[in-house]
Write a structure and sequence with these properties.
The chain is an all-alpha fold and 354 residues long. The chain has one domain (43-349): ABC transporter involved in vitamin B12 uptake, BtuC (Orthogonal Bundle). It contains 15 helices and 4 strands. The protein is globular and about 60 Å long.
Length: 354
Amino acid sequence: MFHRESGYYKTSYAADMALYPLPVARWTVAAIALAMCIAPFVLHEYYVSIINLILVATVGALGLNILVGYTGQISIGHAAFMSVGAYTAANLAVRLDLPFWLTLPAGGLMAAAIGAIVGIPSLRIKGLYLAIATLAGQLIIEWTINHVPWISGGAQASIEVPRPTLFGTQLKTQFQLYWFLLFFAVLAIVGTLNLVRSRIGRAFIAIRDQDIAAEIIGINIFRYKLIAFAISSFYAGVTGVLYTYYLGIANYEQFQIVTSIDYLAMIIIGGLGSVLGSILGAIFVTLLPIVIRLGMENWGTLLFSAADINNLIPNLRLILFGGLIILFLVLEPEGLNRLWRNIRSYFRVWPFSY
């Protein structure tokens, strides 16, 4: 039975601010949680590894959406902050032999500090000019990591990192890493949901909608922009650390500008200013290359030779990314999240037409 709203019956701030006020919403979340708990027991290890990549991408997409979707500050340097977190954790883990519960927050905090510095120009510039400033930050950080051996570990700019150890057990299998990554993904989702409902989150949204009006009513624009950059970079740094522990290596090639574009695609396709949109975008962008590869391997031979297929797959991925971004910007600027809201609204009032 659907529980539909037939009026406004909330009598307290706690009820008004509830994340899931309707029983059907709470049951949906419970069903998803149950499915996530069962999934690693019934799925093949390959599919568990794909879910693991989605979990890591979700954390990074949430961080970028806080900055771009909720605060309106365009950034093309998200991967650079991921690399800061990754190399910070890698150096602490290898040189000082620190456990993950120290290296992970340390990587996030270092990325937050660098992100706040990169965000300083946001006081005077915005829009395209701010995007170019963050792009400069991406290139500067990338160059620094590649040319400072003390940071990157040498000419290859790679540092091998042992897998995290929990309760005396090293997490090596995809099944073990699944629970490790799921914990931080859920923590990031819950943290973001509560952040955007807080005073800081409302200030972010006010700055995004109309920064001059926000300043008139007493919001410190510069302070909250720096906070947005710091929080977004913290998420990015944690994402970089999770990637490092998951792959067992910190390498700059994982955090180049293409990665920043991928995360921008996630939040644009998923939906700007939406937690659910970040999750849907992470799922979509992570699965797209896999679907393209499987499709080309199974049916591409009907049109192309085997050599052409190997050359076409990476290019086709970029073509589809660009085309999908344009398609969503033109047809549905609010992304997959808006499509889901339309479906939800339809069933909420069904069978009525209003």
